[in-house]
Amino acid sequence: MSSRDIIVVGASAGGVEALSGLVGGLAGNIPAAVFVVLHIPRRAPSALPGILDRAGPLPARHAEDGELVLPGRIYVAPSDHHLVLRGDRVALTTDPTQNGHRPAIDPLFRSAARYFGPRVVGVVLSGARDDGAAGLESIARQGGITVVQDPEEAQHPSMPRAALDAVEVDHVLGTAEMGPLLTRIAGSAAGPATPAPPEAEDEMTDPVNGLTPVGLSCPACDGPMFELRSPSTPRFRCRVGHRWSPESLLDGQTDALESALWVAYRSLQDKVALSRRMARSAAERGRPASSSRYERVAEETDRAGTLLRGLIDRMNRMTDYRGVEPLPEDRR
């Protein structure tokens, strides 16, 4: 019988402290491989392997494409690459971003669920938005064990709460307790493997044939969006492969909207500058009527720009769903 020997961990904002606490509690002889995705800027180097290497007894380093999966090691996703599992090998890809990130958590979780099923333990730590919730759902559906950081402890509770909304989680606890828990689970007997669902046949590039168009545009590429089949949490993808969970899609749309508004504001400012330049030119050529007309256009456009800038400022001050306290019935 197979044993639980694959641990996958996802974190975002506030995740370095949470990861350090988790890793510090692992046993040095744990019979499992640990895979970590932390959201980081795509072009920035990551110091996470060194931090985790010093935080606990297991050696930690950036994963390398094609390397063999071995127990007792921590494999960290490098910047600008998805970390996924393909059989007993690690794969690094530059496939489209998911939930606005590369590396993203969901690709690692889904690939682990696909290839290792009940041997997987999935862990969601502190972070904003909802990356990892859909992937944790895949792990649970394939018979794996699910672990989530207590939202009350997490510096940023959105990701833990999203995971709790998506999955009947096996363990909810603080990071200081996670290391000992994972050490106890590692090596224990796993249940029988279950067939991978159709959506898991290709965790990165499944086709959109047969999927339902939703009338939305992808924030990353402006392509049409389709709804992925899911037993609980709605998820979306575009034709080229960008994937979004609901909260991440909302944030992506907000970012795209703000960018569009700034483009509009810049266009209005350009119109103001051009109108005033034309007004000065007309005055210098002794054409006061034309100069006055250009000045009126500049003033009207400037007022429109002021209104638009106020709208942008109000949007950025609004409390969105991430800052709203959950209702009592939504608390876990």
Automatic annotation (TrEMBL):
* Signal sequence extent: none
BP GO terms, sorted: chemotaxis
GO MF, one annotated term: phosphorelay response regulator activity
Residues of the active site are S12, H39, D131
| Domain of life, source organism | Bacteria
Q: Which UniProt keywords apply?
A: Chemotaxis, Hydrolase
What EC number(s) does this enzyme carry?
Answer: 3.1.1.61
InterPro entries the UniProt entry points to: CheB_C, Chemotax_prot-Glu_Me-esterase, Sig_transdc_resp-reg_Me-estase
For this record, the Gene Ontology CC terms, alphabetical, are: cytoplasm
List the protein's name.
protein-glutamate methylesterase
Tell me which residues make up the CheB-type methylesterase domain: 1-189
Q: Which reaction does it catalyse?
A: [protein]-L-glutamate 5-O-methyl ester + H2O = L-glutamyl-[protein] + methanol + H(+)
